[in-house]
Amino acid sequence: MILFPSVDKLLERVDSRYSLIMLASKRAHEIDKYREDKFRADHSDKPVDMSEDKPLLLDHYESNKSVGMALEEIEAGLVTIDTETKD
Questions:
Q1: For the residues of 16-85, what is the DSSP string, one character each?
Q2: How confident is the model over 43-74, as pLDDT tens digits?
Q3: d(Cα 72, Cα 63) in Å, to the nearest integer?
Q4: CB 48 within 8 A of CB 37
Q5: pTM of the model
Q6: InterPro entries from the xrefs (predicted)?
Q7: What percent of the chain lies above the pLDDT cut of 70?
Q8: Do the beta carbons of residue 64 and residue 56 sit within 8 Å?
Q9: What angle do the packed helices 17-42 and 66-75 form, to 10 degrees?
Q10: How far apart (Å, rounded) are the C-alpha atoms in residues 80 and 76?
Q11: What is the mean pLDDT of residues 11-19?
Q12: What is the DSSP string of 5-28?
């Protein structure tokens, strides 16, 4: 169950629950990849290519989990659905 951010607030940003789930899922995967690559870069002598990574968008998150972080970014209006692309 999602307590924060509120589903009602999130649905003000996205037109349906399905779209919200898809957007949050995609962004959570991007966050996971960024955090994993950053950890590898910080703890390895070998260079890590982070050019394709999408960095974190907020300075502070209430959640430590990537899905919660994605929902916070959506609520803040920093992550939206791009209607121009099919991906």
A1: -HHHHHHHHHHHHHHHHHHHHHHHHHHT-SS----TT------S--S-SSHHHHHHHHHHTTSS---TT-
A2: 989 899 999 999 999 999 999 999 999 999 99
A3: 8
A4: yes
A5: 0.87
A6: DNA-dir_RNA_pol_omega, Pol_omega/Rpo6/RPB6, RPB6/omega-like_sf
A7: 93
A8: no
A9: 120
A10: 10
A11: 93
A12: S-HHHHHTTSS-HHHHHHHHHHHH
Q: In the chain, where are the structural domains located?
A: 7-46+54-75
Tokens of residue 17, six digits: 């629950």
- Measuring CA to CA, how many Å separate 87 from each of 10, 13, 22, 23, 62? 22, 20, 11, 11, 29
Buried b (16+ CB within 10 A) or exposed e, 62-73: eeeebbbbbbbb
